[in-house]
Amino acid sequence: QVQLVESGGGLVQPGGSLRLSCAASGSIFATYAMGWYRQAPGKQRELVADITRGGSTNYADSVKGRFTISRDNAKNTVFLQMNSLKPEDTAVYYCNADVRSVVGSTKNYWGQGTQVTVSS
Description:
This protein is mainly beta. The chain contains no helices and 11 strands. It has strands spanning 2-7, 10-12, 18-26, 28-39, 46-51, 57-59, 67-72, 77-82, 91-101, 106-110, 114-118. A hairpin with a 6-residue loop joins strand 4 (28-39) and strand 5 (46-51).
């Protein structure tokens, strides 16, 4: 069984920074594409950023230049450094990953979500 556990959310003032972490645990052979999504109240879940195992990244236009995604393959962990936060960044942030288990199958997994609130 594979689990994704997020941490690092919280309340921050506009212009502030937060760093989210997501660690995959369980019977893991390898993690492939990993990413962060967010869902604000009344809105659909949207891609924030993703990163391939080789380190290629992709960002939503709304976060380019402010957010940075990175990963540690040895620790099956993905990070999201969020700078210059705006109130419109307020949402539940979800980790997503394609994980190959030790028994050989690759599946897509979601974390439980972590709340990020940007407010003065």
